[in-house]
UniProtKB/TrEMBL annotation:
This is Mut7-C RNAse domain-containing protein. It comes from the Eukaryota. It comes from Neobodo designis. Pfam families: Mut7-C. Coiled coil: none annotated. Residues 19-194 form the Mut7-C RNAse domain.
Length: 300
């Protein structure tokens, strides 16, 4: 059983500043995202319909555990795409023969009022599997300067407490005496501690950091943009190690590779010829036949 049931292909390669929204049943996921410093709206007051509306209006990525929402979301997305300008054909790389490989780039329909990027998870699997997929598909990166920058309760940014005495009554005497630096949420006024100018000074904070790091991709890691420019033989060598399920996942992310991935799945990769190359070969063949016919007819 996989932890992700559906996901929108546009999620792959998203910028690090992606914002999320989900209903309250997924509060645990929202809490982990907030610990990582990501804006994750999750309120008891939001119904599923409200979550969809806010996701579109605010340009947030929707995370839900309800597959029944997908048809409604796709209906909204279809309307947005129909109003968008036609796609532009661009060069995405060069194959092993030195010829250009093209892809039709979709118009930019992300952002407020655009298509809704979404992830639908299966809550019947372990939480670690759920969150790992959210991290991978949501474009989450490990950025130390953002960790512990948001309130886990209300999602608002926290800030330094300039005067320690101002929060004396909000923490226990033992905590007040043990720590020199405190942080406070600007919204609910919850007080946090365990970090001192970016240095972990609390075992619980350290344990939380180590737990979060095991899910995340380093901020400098960005290999997806290089994948399409690799020679076909290299792509075949890489993808041959993947399972059928993994090949299909890659196919959803890189639709221009779907033909090659299908050929690999069927064990026909060595015979695979891309459609654009077939068309070019057919054009050359037609040109040769035309030239031969003209030569046979002789001068007029």
């Amino acid at each position: 059983t996989v932890s992700v049931l559906y996901w929108h292909p546009a999620m792959v390669g998203r910028e690090h500043d992606v914002r999320f929204i989900m209903d309250f049943s997924l509060y645990r996921i929202a809490k982990q995202l907030r610990l990582l410093g990501y804006d994750a709206e999750c309120s008891r007051e939001n119904t599923q319909e409200m979550v969809v509306r806010k996701a579109r209006a605010d340009g947030r990525t929707l995370i839900t555990a309800s597959p029944s929402q997908v048809p409604h979301i796709e209906k909204l997305n279809k309307a947005v795409r129909e109003e968008a300008p036609p796609p532009q054909r661009t060069i995405i790389g060069y194959n092993s023969d030195g010829e250009s490989e093209y892809a039709d780039s979709e118009p930019d329909t992300d952002g407020p009022g655009g298509v809704i990027n979404y992830i639908v998870i299966n809550t019947n699997v372990k939480f670690d599997d759920q969150f790992r997929q959210v991290v991978q598909l949501g474009g989450i990166r490990w950025m130390p300067h953002r960790v512990f920058s948001r309130c886990v309760l209300c999602n608002i940014l926290i800030s330094d407490v300039p005067d320690k005495e101002s929060i004396r009554d909000l923490v226990s005497p033992a905590v007040f005496d043990a720590y020199a630096h405190f942080y406070q949420c600007r919204g609910c006024l919850k007080v946090y501690w365990g970090m001192d100018s970016g240095v972990v000074v609390n075992f619980k904070a350290l344990r939380t950091i180590e737990n979060l790091k095991r899910f995340c991709i380093p901020a400098s890691s960005d290999v997806s943009r290089h994948l399409l420019s690799l020679p076909r033989t290299i792509k075949v060598a890489i993808f041959s190690f993947l399972t059928v399920e993994e090949l299909r996942t890659v196919g959803r992310a890189y639709t221009m590779l779907s033909g090659l991935l299908t050929a690999i799945e069927r064990g026909e990769a060595t015979k695979f010829v891309p459609d654009w190359k077939k068309a070019k070969m057919e054009e050359r063949r037609a040109a040769r036949l035309k030239a031969a016919a003209a030569g046979a007819a002789g001068p007029t």
